[in-house]
UniProtKB/TrEMBL annotation:
<feature type="compositionally biased region" description="Basic and acidic residues">
    <location>
        <begin position="166"/>
        <end position="180"/>
    </location>
</feature>
<keyword id="KW-0963">Cytoplasm</keyword>
<dbReference type="GO" id="GO:0120293">
    <property type="term" value="C:dynein axonemal particle"/>
</dbReference>
<protein>
    <recommendedName>
        <fullName>Dynein axonemal assembly factor 4</fullName>
    </recommendedName>
</protein>
<dbReference type="GO" id="GO:0036159">
    <property type="term" value="P:inner dynein arm assembly"/>
</dbReference>
<dbReference type="InterPro" id="IPR052004">
    <property type="entry name" value="Dynein_assembly_factor_4"/>
</dbReference>
<dbReference type="GO" id="GO:0005634">
    <property type="term" value="C:nucleus"/>
</dbReference>
<dbReference type="GO" id="GO:0007507">
    <property type="term" value="P:heart development"/>
</dbReference>
<keyword id="KW-0524">Neurogenesis</keyword>
<dbReference type="GO" id="GO:0005576">
    <property type="term" value="C:extracellular region"/>
</dbReference>
<dbReference type="Pfam" id="PF13181">
    <property type="entry name" value="TPR_8"/>
</dbReference>
<dbReference type="InterPro" id="IPR037894">
    <property type="entry name" value="CS_DYX1C1"/>
</dbReference>
<dbReference type="GO" id="GO:0007399">
    <property type="term" value="P:nervous system development"/>
</dbReference>
<dbReference type="GO" id="GO:0030331">
    <property type="term" value="F:nuclear estrogen receptor binding"/>
</dbReference>
<keyword id="KW-0175">Coiled coil</keyword>
<dbReference type="GO" id="GO:0043005">
    <property type="term" value="C:neuron projection"/>
</dbReference>
<keyword id="KW-0966">Cell projection</keyword>
Amino acid sequence: MPVWLREYSWRQTSTAVYLSLPLRGVRVTPANIFCTDQYLKVSVPPFLFEAILYAPIDDTNSTAKIGNGAIFFTLYKKEVSMWDSLTLANADKEKLQYLRENAVLKAHEKAKEETEAKKVTKQEHKKYALEATMKLEEAERTRIEDLKEQVRQKVTKELALWNKQQKDAEKVKRGQKEGELYQGGEQVKEKKKEKMNKARIPNEGTSKTRLKPPQGHGSYSMFSEHLKEEQLPAPRSAATIKISFTSRVFPTALRESRLAEEEEWLRKQAEARRTVSADLSELEDLKEEEKNPDWLKDKGNKMFATGNYLAAVSAYNLAVRLNNKLPVLYLNRAACHLKLRNLHKAIEDCSKALELLTPPVPDNENARVKAHVRRGTAFCQLELYAEGLQDYEAALKIDPKNETIEKDAEKIRHLIQGTSQDS
């Protein structure tokens, strides 16, 4: 049989009700608290507290803080007014049962709506990510096509210019050959006339005999051979053509490459090889699986679960040396530093993890929330409450429905207010 809690204290303003419920000797979690707009229940076996509130409240913004053997509720009123009492007075059992069942029904409907809203939001995020990826691929495809078109136009222009130069050179050569043929033909005619004049009979009056020019194929062949000897050009001078190729690491042509990105990739590869081979003497004694960052991460997680934080830090340190681009390694090592009170190192690891968790996308929301919360915790333990509050508020922007983070942020605000009032 439950023990009903009758001892509690409360106060109110026109906008909110502040309720303090003592619960000593028991462990209270948020799962033990149930609240709707007009119904409040705290069930921590063997204790039970139930209240039908005097008027409706805003259960979404209302908060409950657990600590020091008590629960402190901040209930915001839906309407600005002053209550005559905390609970609804003079309510019969049937009305109380109806309000109780109605509260449970509303809670189930609200949970169902939140689940559906999360599904819709997740689908929207996936759709947005897919559309963004398609746009990037389309832009890249367009860029490559434009680059190919520019190269094609350039090569076409160069080819057309080369063809024009070749045609001009052929015209010049043809003109020179025609001139040489004309001059050679004139010389042959002159020599032929001289021969004919020498072969004539001196007394032209008595003898009309003329020396006929030779006809037939034989004379034509001699003439053409003579012309060939006259027109034959000099041999071309020998020369050596040197062809040099651009040195390339990648198999693609230089005109189709993305030189800046390739150089960045090569630099990162060289840096990774230097990191792995920097302490080769230490890595020689390790087993093959011990050189795997994922295996080391799992080992560090097991050490952290057993409370061996120093061993977990050692595993994460070696994993970071092997691969310093995994944000989860810095996040897990920051958790170990928090346990060991190495607060400055925890802040450094969280900051490094946030640098690697870019760009901010739905897939890395949880990791970014952890990084902000752990860095904010370290700041608060160093009594840098303003910096800690900034990290908690950043985490709330990413996950606004996280009640635990909201409660911790509210505590930090109270601490900052108290510090400013004391000063």
